[in-house]
Amino acid sequence: MGTGAPDGGGALTPLRSGIVALPLQTSIFRKLDQAAALLELGEALPAFDAAVDEAGDLTVSRESISAMASAFERALSASYADRIRHRIDSNRACLNVLLEADPQDRVANATATLADVDLVLCEMVTLVVLGKFLPDILFDAISRRSPMADAPFPSPSPGSVLAADLSALSSACLEHGCNAHELARSWPDVAPAVRALVTGFAHSHTGYGPLAWEAPGFEDPAVVVSALATTAASNGNDTRLPVAVERLEPSDTDMAAVYRLLESWLLLLETGILGLRSAFYTIIVPLAGVMARERSVSATDIAFMRFDELLGEAPQRGEIARRRAQYRRTEDYLATNGIDPDRIDQLMTATP
Fold it and tell me: Which of 88, 192, 255, 305 could cross-link to 264 by cystine, CB 3.0-4.6 Å?
């Protein structure tokens, strides 16, 4: 299974340690074992042996990676590449639909909305984990047939767009007589117009931040202020806008389909964390109070339930308490991500 011990297929090798700690976020990795079916390789392969355990460690069987890579390479064709690209693009599109839905409709249909979020996020994280090694096969295939083709990394990258937006915010604050260093020293005691600029930026850039949902990101105005100061110290007044880079693409018809698949996968890898965090702050947090009332638990308890428990049979209160206590003991995880142990309470109870 995706959130526990594998059923077989070799010893699990750590890929990343302590990537997540909240049971709700950990649970979106529970369908990693269905990765072969997701890529239409279910008949050729056993369950994919990968897991995120209770400690938040992502591990995977090297044998499973090898088997998956071999089957994927054998299946690769123009039509297969188009189908997998459509799945990746559809996943991102489905998440965007959920994010853009009317908030009142989400509240009125909270359980159904969260069921949809669960499906989309489970598929997204599986595609992201597979994206750690399968895109190399795609680029190798392209390079053999079209050696001059460039890797289709997103251009401009999300990071460069964020940097440009920060630069524009810095300029806007300067128009009100407040530079980045003064802003950092005085925040939040700044002019109302400057405070509105920063909080507005935080709202529109919710989702940018670390993988761990509850770790502070750009939804927090204090993080925006810190980023402005850091940018000013390292880049000065660099106001260059992000520019799309022209790429040399393969002319071979079959390889063009593979190239488009690689392009979609690299875009998902660049924007995956943004999507996951956006779902948490835009959908899950605002619905926490609704689900808490339905399940007769506290809003914070929602973060310590798995999605399958949230949508099905809830765990006993003693189990939730055990998980909360264990979470507070994950000192390395909390320190690495800059998380105050009480932050999750503040987040989950912020929306009535």
Answer: 88
Token digits of residue 77: 């064709």
State if pTM tops 0.70.
Answer: yes
Model pLDDT for residues 165-202, shown as the tens digit of each residue: 999 999 999 999 999 999 999 999 999 999 999 999 99
- The strand pairing partners of 58, in sequence order, are 16, 52
Q: Residue 58 — left, alpha, or beta (φ > 0 → left; ψ -120 to 50 → alpha)?
A: beta
Q: How confident is the model at residue 5 (pLDDT cuts 50, 70, 90)?
A: very low
Using a CB cutoff of 8 Å and minimum separation of 24, what contacts does 34-38 make?
Answer: 34/2, 34/126, 35/68, 35/126, 35/129, 35/130, 36/68, 36/71, 38/87, 38/123, 38/126, 38/127, 38/130
**What 3-state class would DSSP assign to 56?**
coil
β-sheet bridge partners, residue 50: 60
At residue 254 the predicted structure's pLDDT band, cuts being 50, 70 and 90, is confident
- Crossing angle of helices 253-279 and 158-175, rounded to 10°: 50
**How many Å apart are CA 342 and CA 37, to the nearest integer?**
39
Rounded Cα gap, residues 70 and 91, in angstroms: 24
Asked if 138 and 258 touch (Cβ cutoff 8 Å), the reply is: yes
- What the block records as the tokens of 171 is 């300029």
Secondary structure (3-state) at 350:
coil
265 closest CA partner among 81, 77, 116: 81
Q: What does the domain layout of the chain look like in residue ranges?
A: 12-154+248-348, 158-235
Which amino acid makes up residue 108?
A
pLDDT digits (tens, 9 = 90+) for 276-306: 999 999 999 999 999 999 999 999 999 999 9
The total number of residues shown for the chain amounts to 352
The kind and range of the H/E element at 231 are helix 221-235
